[in-house]
Structure formats: structure tokens, C-alpha cells
Amino acid sequence: MNLYEHTIIARQDTSPSELKQLSEKYSKIIEKNDGELVKTENWGLLNLSYLIKKNRKGSYIHFKIKGDGKVIDELEKNESIDKKLLRYLTVRVKKFDLDKVYFGNKEDSEKKESVKN
Predict the structure, then answer these.
(1) What whole-number distance in Å separates Cα of residue 5 and Cα of residue 96?
(2) Rounded CA separation 97/94 (Å)
(3) Higher pLDDT residue, 76 or 115?
(4) Considering the entire predicted model, what is its pTM?
């Protein structure tokens, strides 16, 4: 079983309820194709480096997935026809970093650091 980190970028005008629906939709696709969703992170609305389809910002959703290539093929097939998405990226990794929160609030990560120490 392979480990993947998969990120999608939704259009900036996508509402929070639509983002939740997108997350649930792709979670179901993962589970339906015998994949295991280890973690889902909503990174929020971030600036893009350049304009993509006339959008300056995008809402990022990041998935950590255990599964085989069939899961990723099915995900990317569905994402390529989804009009709400700007981009998607899948990276195969050797292990997951489940402790670090890369795009969370600084106060939240400081609280977690102080709890660990």
C-alpha cells in the first residue's frame, strides 16, 4: 500500500459549505476505491503565485491517503472535470508527518508546542 499526499485548490468564490461538500465527495471516492483517508486538512484561502483562470486566491484542501494507484487515478479523473477546482497535485511519500500543522494559526501551533514540552 502506497502513501500519498493530495492537494486540491478550489476557486476563491467557493463557499464554506461547497468546500465541505468537495471534501466529502473526494473522501467518498477514496473510500469507494479501497483507499484509506488518514487525515484531511483545510488550509483555507491562500494567495496564488500567479493568476489561474482569472483567480488570485484559492481554497486549499489537503488529503493524506493510503492506497494504490487506482485510487489516485479515480480521484484525478473526477477532479479534471470538476469546474470548482483550479488545480490538483498528488505526491507519493515514504511516510506521513501527522504532527506538524503547516498552514494553521500560529497561536494553535504555539499551544501545541507548549503542551508537548
Answers:
(1) 8
(2) 10
(3) 76
(4) 0.82
